[in-house]
């Protein structure tokens, strides 16, 4: 059976003209590093930040597949009712440029509907499907995932559209094959462990198999609408696709020793020494930070030195864009004192160290060395107390994360039931540099975007009174536009200004090297 019956997209009457997509400046790149380094052989650490633009009204339409566990255990503790409320929130947030398909799974998987364009009529149909959900049978996560992927891969309307799968399960897979072994290709798959009996290992593996997927643990079943809302906020604000960062050292001036970019794929050209990092999509105001460690050879005299060329590319609604390359230039000097590492670099080092120590603590706890795991978490806490800027919001967020984790390591039973899912979600958050729900969702906002903050409040209100629909995504965009009228052109303006600055800097560097 093929699922190529996705609905045609019909432009609603009185919808008005669609905004013309602006390709340039949808992501901005900033580099942070020391400007002077010694004459002798030395290492240079460069921090790169790629930030998604803050304008998403010209976003591509979203083809979303919700893959929902309706096994027998979903009848317990009112979980099925929570899923229905969370899905109603999703349905009400989507707009006419979006399409939604719903897949359920228990012993087998079933596609309840094809990808349907969101209209007033289809919203009612989709809501009826959700309200009629019933739970029974085993848990075949693999069948649900494969069916969801088939809905995406069999579409006949694909051009210029973004895609995503949201997969939720409350238990262990006990039917079908191993979902962790299902290849997902380039489809972002975001998984949600629901309740206290889910098995996080498989759900995290599914997310890890996807280039930009996340795993969220939602052990508090009252938080499912919020967790869904955070994922949806990202999917509805994708500003670029296929983002790639290209790093090239300068011959005889530098060598790339390592690139730290979480668990995003890297490839190296042995001939040039260049490294390419592939990120996939980027949400509005979302940031990817990359650390590049360079080895600079000794030089005999003071001079300027080009040490790294940085380029990036992306696509948007089927159109490819490649930014002009930027160059990192430093001054080689024989001065007796040298610059300290920049605060932004030290903050990112602190975050990476904390993430690494959380991972070490997990390994210890999984090996039944819970005392050692707790000691490692305390060590991480002490390291944060010694941080240069202990009042930095990032440091405060990391402290909160460690405090929550320590509480979840009080005993073996608490750790296995609550701590492991928390750590899995923490890992996916840090190494994807993308928000993932866990623990105190309202308090732990690491990597959350402005739209996610907005949707958190909307989801809370909807949970309190589902009869009051949340604002549509179109209304969200209008409100953001009113607050920042220059948003549609800001990215392009920044791009052209930065291009002019780079040209002037290149001229300045040529003059300096000639002196």
From TrEMBL:
Gene3D superfamilies: von Willebrand factor, type A domain. Pfam families: VWA, Vwaint. Residues 1-20, 459-479 are annotated as: Disordered. InterPro entries: CLCR, Vwaint_dom, VWF_A, vWFA_dom_sf. It comes from the Eukaryota. Residues 63-239 form the VWFA domain. PANTHER family: CALCIUM-ACTIVATED CHLORIDE CHANNEL REGULATOR, OS01G0640200 PROTEIN. This is VWFA domain-containing protein. It comes from Manihot esculenta.
């Amino acid at each position: 059976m093929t699922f190529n019956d996705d609905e045609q997209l019909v432009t609603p009457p009185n919808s008005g003209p669609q905004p013309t997509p602006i390709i340039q400046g949808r992501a901005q790149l900033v580099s942070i590093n020391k400007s002077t380094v010694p004459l002798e052989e030395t290492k240079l650490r460069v921090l790169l930040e790629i930030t998604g633009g803050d304008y998403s009204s010209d976003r591509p339409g979203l083809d979303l597949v919700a893959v929902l566990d309706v096994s027998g255990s979903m009848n317990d503790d009112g979980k099925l009712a929570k899923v229905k409320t969370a899905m109603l929130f999703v349905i009400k947030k989507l707009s006419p440029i979006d399409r939604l398909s719903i897949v359920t799974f228990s012993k087998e998987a079933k596609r309840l509907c094809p990808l349907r364009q969101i209209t007033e009529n289809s919203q009612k149909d989709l809501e009826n499907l959700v309200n009629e959900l019933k739970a029974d049978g085993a848990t075949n996560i693999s069948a649900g995932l494969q069916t969801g992927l088939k809905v995406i891969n069999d579409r006949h309307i694909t051009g210029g559209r973004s895609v995503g799968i949201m997969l939720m399960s409350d238990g262990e897979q006990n039917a079908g094959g191993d979902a962790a072994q299902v290849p997902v290709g380039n489809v972002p798959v975001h998984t949600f462990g629901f309740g206290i009996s889910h098995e996080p290992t498989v759900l995290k593996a599914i997310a890890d198999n996807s280039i930009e997927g996340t795993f969220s643990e939602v052990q508090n079943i009252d938080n499912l609408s919020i967790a869904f809302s955070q994922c949806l906020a990202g999917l509805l604000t994708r500003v670029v696709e296929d983002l790639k960062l290209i790093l090239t050292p300068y011959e005889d001036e530098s060598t790339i020793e390592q690139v730290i970019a979480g668990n995003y794929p890297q490839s190296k050209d042995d001939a040039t020494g260049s490294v390419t990092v592939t990120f996939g999509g980027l949400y509005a105001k979302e940031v990817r930070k990359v650390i590049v460690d360079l080895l600079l050879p000794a030089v005999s005299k003071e001079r300027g030195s080009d040490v790294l060329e940085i380029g990036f590319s992306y696509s948007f609604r089927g159109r490819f864009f490649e930014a002009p390359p930027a160059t990192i230039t430093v001054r080689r000097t024989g001065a007796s004192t040298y610059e300290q590492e920049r605060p932004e670099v030290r903050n990112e080092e602190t975050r990476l160290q904390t993430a690494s120590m959380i991972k070490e603590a997990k390994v210890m706890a999984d090996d039944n060395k819970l005392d050692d795991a707790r000691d490692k978490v305390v060590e991480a806490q002490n390291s944060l107390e010694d941080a240069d800027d202990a009042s930095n919001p990032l440091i405060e967020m990391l402290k909160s994360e460690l405090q929550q984790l320590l509480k979840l390591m009080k005993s073996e039973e608490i750790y296995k039931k609550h701590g492991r899912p928390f750590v899995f979600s923490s890992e996916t958050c840090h190494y994807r540099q993308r928000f993932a729900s866990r623990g105190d969702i309202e308090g732990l906002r690491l990597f959350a975007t402005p739209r996610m903050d907005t949707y958190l409040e909307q989801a809370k209100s909807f949970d309190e009174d589902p009869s009051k629909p949340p604002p549509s995504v179109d209304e969200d965009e209008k409100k953001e536009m009113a607050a920042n009228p220059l948003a549609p052109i800001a990215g392009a303006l920044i791009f052209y200004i930065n291009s002019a600055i780079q040209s002037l800097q290149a001229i300045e560097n040529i003059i300096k090297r000639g002196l």
